[in-house]
Amino acid sequence: MSKRIDELDDAVDPMLDVESAFESEEFRFGDYAIEDYFTLVIFWALIFVVSLQFFTRYVLGDSTTWTEEIARYLLIVVGFAGSALAVRKGTHIMVEFFYRYMPGWLGRIVAGVAEGVSVGFYIAMAWVTYKLADRTGSMMISVDLPKNIIYFTVFAAFVVMAFRGIQRIVLRLRATRQ
């Protein structure tokens, strides 16, 4: 027989996890990796550039020419650096629906194969972006910087993703042996 919602105990309270998300924990630098701090710095630079663009366009009435292009490139860097962060934490988008209906051993195998395929993809994309960056010689339009800076940054993000993916596979293999 099912219980009424007001009869449920705290162990199955659906709001328990939501409430715990708002509890503040002590900040520890060791909980974060170098890519987290890099992403944070680039994100704040993006906020500064977009705020400067807003201020010059709507307050001063004359927008600076370089802010839109730099904001676009910073957003690209934040996206790829954030992807490296997601690989480290294992929070990339995936379909968890099928894992519920698989036996535990099969779900672990499928998850391991998926992580292996992901690492292969990261390595392939790192190679492609390196070749693209190496062949790109054009300059940015509004700033006198080479465009390949962005491509090399994306290359570095894919390398970090591959490294973090390999770390996750190694940790998964160690956990299954114990």
Automatic annotation (TrEMBL):
<comment type="subunit">
    <text>The complex comprises the extracytoplasmic solute receptor protein and the two transmembrane proteins.</text>
</comment>
<keyword id="KW-1003">Cell membrane</keyword>
<keyword id="KW-0813">Transport</keyword>
<comment type="similarity">
    <text>Belongs to the TRAP transporter small permease family.</text>
</comment>
<keyword id="KW-0472">Membrane</keyword>
<feature type="transmembrane region" description="Helical">
    <location>
        <begin position="109"/>
        <end position="129"/>
    </location>
</feature>
<feature type="domain" description="Tripartite ATP-independent periplasmic transporters DctQ component">
    <location>
        <begin position="47"/>
        <end position="174"/>
    </location>
</feature>
<dbReference type="GO" id="GO:0005886">
    <property type="term" value="C:plasma membrane"/>
</dbReference>
<dbReference type="InterPro" id="IPR055348">
    <property type="entry name" value="DctQ"/>
</dbReference>
<dbReference type="InterPro" id="IPR007387">
    <property type="entry name" value="TRAP_DctQ"/>
</dbReference>
<keyword id="KW-1133">Transmembrane helix</keyword>
<dbReference type="GO" id="GO:0015740">
    <property type="term" value="P:C4-dicarboxylate transport"/>
</dbReference>
<comment type="function">
    <text>Part of the tripartite ATP-independent periplasmic (TRAP) transport system.</text>
</comment>
<keyword id="KW-0812">Transmembrane</keyword>
<feature type="transmembrane region" description="Helical">
    <location>
        <begin position="149"/>
        <end position="171"/>
    </location>
</feature>
<keyword id="KW-0997">Cell inner membrane</keyword>
<dbReference type="GO" id="GO:0022857">
    <property type="term" value="F:transmembrane transporter activity"/>
</dbReference>
<protein>
    <recommendedName>
        <fullName>TRAP transporter small permease protein</fullName>
    </recommendedName>
</protein>
<feature type="transmembrane region" description="Helical">
    <location>
        <begin position="70"/>
        <end position="88"/>
    </location>
</feature>
<feature type="transmembrane region" description="Helical">
    <location>
        <begin position="37"/>
        <end position="58"/>
    </location>
</feature>
<dbReference type="Pfam" id="PF04290">
    <property type="entry name" value="DctQ"/>
</dbReference>
